[in-house]
Amino acid sequence: MHADPVVLRDVRDELMAHALVRADETNYHTLNVDSVLSACPVLNSTVHEVFRFRGIGTGMVRRVLADQRLGSGYMLKKGGLVFAPNSVQHFGVTRAWDADCDIFGHRRFLQLNGGGLKGTSALRIFGGGGSYCPGRHFASAQLLVFAALVALRADIRPVPGREWANATADKSFGLGIATGFLMPDSDLEVKILSTGKNVVIIK
Ligand code: HEM
Fold first, then answer.
1. 138 lines ligand 1 (CB under 6 A)
2. Helix crossing, 41-54 with 5-18: angle to 10°?
3. Measuring CA to CA, which residue among 178, 141, 201, 152 is closest to residue 2?
4. Does the beta carbon of 177 lie inside 6 Å of ligand 1?
5. 193 exposed, middle or buried (CB, 10 Å; 0-12, 13-18, 19+)?
6. Which atom of ligand 1 is nearest to the CA of 143?
7. Which pLDDT band, with edges at 50, 70 and 90, does 110 fall under?
8. Could you tell me the residue ranges of all domains in the chain?
9. Ligand 1: does its nearest atom lie under 6 Å from the Cβ of 131?
């Protein structure tokens, strides 16, 4: 978010309008978690786009239960394993994504007519088909609230000489479940400043 002023402004404006209960006299604002999850489509779309754009590991592995022909090109043999890399699902399936899917677009998952998010089964970060990650709502909700807090409370900038435009994320995957995600190839050194807003969470 902080690397792109347009994304940061959009997310902050939305949170301020729909999820932040302001108490101007005390500067002690309250973030409404329910509203972050249900009334902030731009933030939700941005997090989905991070899942799509960075989540290009191989999260889905399936065993072939019976010989099966896939289209005219592939014969899947019983007992084999099929690895479905998200790098293909999240970019190469052109019918699922717009032509600009090779660039990051924080509004990609917004419904055109406003309100809500587009559903797409091509987003495979939590699995797909007959089996999905049962912790996906829990994980997404935590990420959304954390992202909301960071957007509202922190100004994050690269330290001089370590500009984000020069950062690469071409070859490193994380550990554990984060193997689904491309990570920066080296540490990002940043300066974190307070925006001066005191935010607490309520449920
Ligand atoms: C960003 C965080 C997470 C990601 C990207 C993620 C991703 C995945 C993926 C790709 C699978 C395999 C699904 C498939 O084979 O179709 C999976 C399975 C699973 N996940 Fe997650 N997960 C995350 C967080 C969590 C959390 C927080 C929990 C528990 C609270 C959880 C519990 C599980 C369990 C139990 C399975 C196995 C389900 C099964 O085999 O039927 N995950 N996850």
1. yes
2. 140
3. 152
4. yes
5. exposed
6. 1
7. very high
8. 5-57+87-202
9. yes
Ligand 1 within 6 A of 28 CB?
no
Q: Is the pLDDT of residue 163 over 90?
A: no
Contacts of 148 (CB under 8 A, 6+ apart): 11, 15, 19, 31, 36, 40, 43
Architecture of domain 5-57+87-202: Orthogonal Bundle (1.10)
What's the token pair of residue 103? 């660039």
In single-letter form, the type of residue at position 20 comes to: L
DSSP for residue 179 = G
Q: What ligand 1 atom has the least distance to the C-alpha of 128?
A: 16
More confident residue, 83 or 94: 83
117 DSSP assignment:
B
Confidence grade of residue 118 (pLDDT, cut at 50, 70, 90): confident
Distance 138 CA to ligand 1 centre (A): 10
